[in-house]
Amino acid sequence: MPSISRIPVVSAQPAAVSALPGAAPKVGFVSLGCPKALVDSEQILTQLRAEGYETASSYDGADLVIVNTCGFIDAAVQESLDAIGEALAENGKVIVTGCLGAKKDGNGDDIIMKVHPKVLAVTGPHALAEVMDSVHLHLPKPHAPFFDLVPPQGIKLTPKHYAYLKISEGCNHRCSFCIIPSMRGDLVSRPIAELMLEAENLFKAGVKELLVISQDTSAYGVDVKFRSGFWNGRPVKTHMTQLVEILGQLAAQYGAWVRLHYVYPYPHVDQIIPLMSGGVILPYLDVPLQHAHPDVLKRMKRPASGEKNIERIQAWRAMNPDLTIRSTFIAGFPGETEAEFDYLLDFIKEAQIDRLGCFAYSPVEGATANLLANPVPEEVREERRGRLMMLQEDISRQRLKAKIGKTIRVLIDKVEGSGGVGRSSADAPEIDGVVYVKAPFEPHKKLVVGEFFDVTVTSADAHDLWAAA
Ligand code: SF4
């Protein structure tokens, strides 16, 4: 039976950074349970100190309290629940960690949330990273320029007004033309609270467009079984739909856009489309389809290859007629017959993809597709790629022509002379077209990089638009 030791509210020497007057926020700590729990407490306290937090010696003096709980026997459960209740009553901002955090009641409900729904976050034992994520969220460490050489939003290589948010690393699929999983491993989703904090820091730093990226955005959270994290004091699932929903709410507060990349057409993506009508989650989906013929998709071992992609695209467009669909395709995949390639061309005609990239198959070293029968000769691969791109040029020209006369919102990337270059909801940076904007007529209205303008489309070609502010 574990001994129950209770360390009321820890008092410790302040870290060096906390010597700055008023610089360091204070955390109170209640540690219950066995020596394993004690080690967890020590690790959390060590990390807090390393990041410049102070520990408080009373509930009054703490900006937030962490309670490390025990859940081994009934008495320990009760003591933990009492300690949480006391911290809530005395301080109000409470994060709970430890064994009781992982315990459910007979109905499968989280015991702590049931008794104390006002706690800010709950984690199980040995969860240093999650506890620190919650602390950062509810009690951000102050930015001390003398100590922190990196700004809160990190070092960014993109222009100040847009940034990428990588939500996961690696991939659980094994597409036969791809070696990414062998280089980067299986899917590892980043904690949702960490992502939201990063997004908030980026918006605070002036980012007006956040581009969500990963290898497979639709799979976000699969690796952690969509476990709950916390944002703004409420539980949120590590799941694509919840992430997009709360990112949209946050972006709306800062007047920013959110754009989604690498979205595989799984059924749950349907729930994202209604979120795109408010002008924050952009009506734009980057869906890398790679092919349309079922046999080629099977040889490619593509995710969601069994989904009816034409029907899905049509349903999405019915839900939001402004939706821009970007996709990439491979021409001349090993074994691709002329009939399979024609099937792909027919698909492209029917799907009316807005933005399309096509690559001739390239045998990447280590890809299992290289072992498939009937490789397509290089000149045929290139010829098919050329044919597909010619078809797409026509489709794109028609689709962009239909925008002439419409008013669209653009984010200005560049100011040139009296005019500028911007992008609309249909244009991701670097990969899509742009909108060339003629200077506004009113002398007081000037195009500014990183700001939004409503412009009227005056002309179009196969890739870009021209518009007047
Ligand atoms: S191409 Fe396939 S295996 Fe490679 S990263 Fe994308 S989904 Fe994963």
According to DSSP, the number of beta strands is 20
Strand content: 15-25%
Which ligands accompany this protein? iron/sulfur cluster
Nearest-integer average pLDDT: 88
- Biggest sheet, spatial arrangement of strands: 6-9-12-13-14-15
User: Span between N and C termini?
Assistant: 74 Å
Which term fits the overall shape?
globular
Query: Radius of gyration in whole Å, from Cα?
Result: 26 Å
Structural class by SSE content: alpha/beta
What composes the largest sheet? 6 strands, parallel
Approximate helicity band: 25-40%
Annotation field: number of helices: 11
Low-confidence stretches: 1-5, 8-21
Task: Give a written overview of the molecule.
By secondary structure, the protein is of the alpha/beta class. 29% of the residues lie in helices and 21% in strands. The protein has eleven helices and 20 strands. The strands form five sheets. A six-stranded parallel beta sheet has the order 6-9-12-13-14-15. The protein has a five-stranded parallel beta sheet with strand order 2-1-3-4-5, sandwiched between helices. Strands 16-17-18-20-19 form a five-stranded mixed beta barrel. Helix 6 packs parallel to helix 7 and helix 10 (338-351) runs parallel beside helix 11 (378-401). The radius of gyration is 26 Å and the shape is globular. Residues 1-5 and 8-21 have low confidence and may be disordered. Bound molecules: iron/sulfur cluster. Residues 171, 173-175, 178, 180-181, 215-216, 303 line the site of iron/sulfur cluster (SF4). Iron/sulfur cluster is lined by residues 171, 173-175, 178, 180-181, 215-216, 303.
